[in-house]
Amino acid sequence: MTSRRRRGPIRPRYRGPLAPLRRLFDDLPWAGPVAALALVVNAGAIGYRITEGWDWGDCYWMVLITLSTLGFSDEHTPLVHTGGRVVTALLLMGGLVVVQQTLQKLLELTNSGYFRRLRQRRYRQQLQRSMNQHVILCGYGRIGREIAEQLCGENIQLLVVENDAGRIDEAQQRGLTVLQGDATLDETLEEAGIHRCRALVAALPNNAANLYVILSARGLAPSARLIARADSEEAEGKLRLAGADQVVSPYVAGGRAMAATALRPLAVTFMELLAGSDCEVEEFLLSEHPERLGDLNGASLSELQLGRRSGALVLAIRNPASSQLSTGAVESLIANPGGDVRLGPGQLLVVMGSKRQLQDFGTLLGGALAGVESMPA
C-alpha cells in the first residue's frame, strides 16, 4: 500500500519571447480581459485628450458615460467636436465588445468556482504561515468533536481537516480553524503543516481511511507523533505497522475509564482536576550516546536535585530494553523513582509541572536531551 498524492493539471510549455505573458494569462485567466478593458479606457481618454484638449478628468468621464451607454450631459459637459465624435464612435464599436467579453469572462470564472478556489488558496497559504507546533485533527465526527473540546480547553493550537460540508460548518461555528480537504492525500497533509505539527490525530470513522492518513503522514514526516483511532484489534495492528505511535479504541478506552471510575473514583477525579489546571506532563528522552550525557551519566536523582532546582516532579523513568545501568536495575518502568535511581543513556523521564517548571527541567538536562514530547496532564 502506498500513500496517495493528488495529481495536478498538466501545464502547457510556452516558448518564444511572449512565453512569460502567455504564462501569466494562463495563471490569471481574468488578466487578459481586464487588460484589454484598461487598454480601451486609456486609449479613449488619450484620444479625447488629443482631439478635444480636455483635462484628464473630463476625458475619463467621457469614456465612462460612453462605455456605459448613459450618454449623460449637462451644462458642465464640454462640447464634442468632429475628432471627439470619431473617438466616441470607435469607443462604442470596439469598447462595448471588450466590456461584454470582460463581463462574460468574469461571470464564467465565477460560475466555475475560480474565485472560490482563489480564496481557498489564500486561506491555505495563511494557514501555512500561522500554524506551528499545532495538532492536526483529521475528522470532526463524534470522536473528533470531543478531542477538539479537550484540546481547545487546554489552549492548544488545533487545525481540523474535514471534507464534509456540514461538519465544516459545525467546526467553524465553534470557532475552530478548518482546512477543507481529503486527509488521506499527501497534498492536504502538507497544507495542514505536517512538518511543523506537534501531533496528528486520525479520527476518521473508517479504519481504512485512518490507515491511509497514518501511512501518508509517516512517509511525509518520519519524526511526527501520530495517533490513530481503531475499531478492532486487527485494525490496531495494521495502524501500528503503518507507523502510528499510539492507537486508541474508543470502546476499549471508554470501558477502561468506566472501570477506573468504579474502582478508583478519587484517582479519576484527581486526573480531571489536573486537566483543568496549568500542569502538564512531558516526556524527556535522554540521548543514547553516553558522552552527550556528561556529568548526568550514572548520577542519581538525589545528587542532581533536578526536582528541587526546577520545581518539577519526576513521575516515572522508563529504561531502554538494552540498557545495563550501573545499579543493575532491569525494570522497564520505574514509577515514583527514589533518589537512588541513576540516569543513563536512552532513558525516558516522565515529568509533571507547570510550563515554566518543565522548561527549567529541560534546561538542566541541556545537551543530554534527545527529544521532548508534551501533552496536557
Characterise the protein shown here.
- This protein is elongated.
- Helix content is 50%, strand content 14%.
- Helix 9 links the parallel strand 4 (199-202) and strand 5 (226-229).
- It has helices at residues 19-27, 31-52, 56-67, 82-111, 114-130, 142-153, 165-173, 186-191, 207-220, 233-242, 250-263, 265-275, 290-293, 301-304, 306-310, 355-365, and strands spanning 135-138, 158-162, 177-180, 199-202, 226-229, 246-248, 280-286, 313-318, 333-335, 348-353, 369-376.
- Helix 2 (31-52) runs antiparallel to helix 4 (82-111) and helix 9 (207-220) packs parallel to helix 10 (233-242).
- The protein is of the alpha/beta class and 377 residues long.
- A six-stranded parallel β-sheet has the order 3-2-1-4-5-6, sandwiched between helices.
- The longest helix is centred in the first third of the chain and has 30 residues, at 82-111.
- It is built from 16 helices and eleven strands.
